[in-house]
Amino acid sequence: MALVSDEVKELALPSRRWTPFSGLPPVVVWAPAVLVACAVALPLLYLLIRTVGVGEELPDMLFRWRTARVLLRSAALVAGVTAGAVAIAVPLAWITVRTDVPLRRMWSVATVLPLVIPSYVAAFLAVVALGPKGMLQGLLEPLGVSRLPEIYGYPGAAITLALLTYPYVLLSVRSALVRLDPALEETSRSLGVSRWETFRRVVLPLLRPSIAGGALLVALYTLSDFGAVSILRYETFTWAIYIQYEGALDRTLAAALSLVLIAVALAILVGEGWVRGRAQYYRSTAGAVRPPAVVRLGRWKWPALAFLSIVVGVSVVLPMGVLGYWVARGIAAGEVLQFLWRDAMNSVYVSAAAALAAVAAALPVAGLVVRHQGRMSAVVEKVTYTGFALPGIVVALALVFFGIHYLTPLYQTVAMLMFAYVVLFLPTAVNTLRASLLQVSPSVEEAGRGLGKSPLGVMVTVTLPLLRPGLAAGAAMVFLLAMKELPATLILSPTGFSTLATSVWSATSEALFARAAVPALLLIMATAFPLIWLLRRGER
């Protein structure tokens, strides 16, 4: 076991030599990364402007029991959802990447599909299907079941959000497993170490940055979610902020609560950085890159299939079935259902543009964080993550403020809406690119420079092809999140510019559930097909 221990220790040692990103001069990496961070910090500047005139009243607003109670409730939800998402995603990633489970390609796509379901749709479907007096109880009433347990509150919100967010961890861990050097596991197995011990002592430590990065996105998403917590009646910071923005003429308290939300997000970022550490996770010895051996499950094939079926059934099949039931019920009642193709095209157009822009903005940030580790690069990274922790309404109102006062030509344009999506969802692209770049040895880039390639040539021909899985995964997640985003779309959309998300919201707000099911199904299909294409392209 000494050989395995030495190899793992070598991989876990802090890097003694970090080269510039693809040999580029430091200023070429720093300048765009800092520019991206400044652009993302605009909502933070807006919140500071809102709260600067409060004076002595600000501590009284923040340091009171109700604020502390909401903070504890939010922290409990973040902890529960993050733990649940990691517990679901890591086994799923290993089964779909490393084993001979039947229909592995199908499961690798189906397990990611919860990303396409908006949280407000999933929460409402959970209430309709599983809540008291819901569809499931109606089926069980002939068996004597008069009332199911309450789905409202913490249990319902935690389970719903965990089933929606585990793909963040799954995509990150799956990308890392694909690129992991199989020689370490083979060496451990050849020394008589069991497969489970090899996974626990060799593979799992090397997956730490991917797990931490995915868990970070889950935590920030949970912190900023409004749809699920409002429908399932679990009060968090986001819900309190929305109530203040909608019901109070003075938005100062809402801005102050948003600053507290950012402080919590920064605490999560610090914790994630501590868990991830400063180790290097790329191959440090010579050798050919090859795929890992497929693990034959044998008698464990059926438990693995059962696990996959339960996760996909609850998170994908059940919501789709309820939506289909609504559509069928509406048709049977004679309701005219319209297929909103124009709204679908608008959603795809602006979301695809935002995905490309977010990946382009994330590339210099990821390169700076990985290849130029230090306090300043850590600050840049944490600033880029603040937008993901803020509710969409806060980011949208911040851009409205700057659009009216300083950027009038961009106010109520598609460009501003796209920029809002980039601010909100940039961390998903940064996370996947950082995890991929951590596994690219700087010596590979140095070899390209030694063969006469220019720094730009090394980036185009060496680094970017190695980052292709991370680029595809990051673009896919930004696209999916932008397709589902509701508050920012409602506030920033140009006049007459409607999307599938706004159509779903307008129909459900009028209790037209059958009419809402059609754009909801279109939304799921419009995001599922590009997601499948991006995942397949990333694999190739």
Search tags:
single chain; 75% helix; 540 residues
Per DSSP, the total helix count is 26
**Uncertain parts:** 1-20, 284-288
Q: Shape, please?
A: globular
Strand content: under 5%
What helical percentage do the residues reach?
Answer: over 70%
Cα-based radius of gyration, to the nearest Å: 24 Å
- End-to-end Cα distance: 35 Å
Average residue-wise pLDDT: 76
Write the H/E string, N to C: HHHHHHHHHHHHHHHHHHHHHHHHHH
Number of strands: 0
The biggest beta sheet, please? none
Class computed from helices, strands and strand pairing: mainly alpha
Task: Please write out the topology.
Elements: H1 2-12, H2 26-40, H3 42-51, H4 57-62, H5 65-98, H6 104-110, H7 119-130, H8 135-140, H9 154-179, H10 182-190, H11 195-206, H12 208-224, H13 227-231, H14 237-247, H15 252-276, H16 301-332, H17 341-371, H18 375-389, H19 392-405, H20 414-437, H21 442-450, H22 455-466, H23 468-484, H24 487-492, H25 500-509, H26 513-539
Helix pairs in contact: 1-10, 2-17, 2-18, 3-15, 3-19, 5-6, 5-9, 5-12, 7-9, 7-16, 9-12, 9-20, 9-23, 10-11, 12-15, 12-20, 14-15, 15-18, 16-26, 17-18, 17-20, 17-23, 17-26, 18-20, 19-20, 20-23, 21-22, 23-26, 25-26
Question: Could you characterize what this model shows?
Answer:
The chain has 540 residues and is an all-alpha fold. It has 26 helices and no strands. α16 packs antiparallel against α26 and α17 packs antiparallel against α18. The chain starts with a helix and ends with a helix.
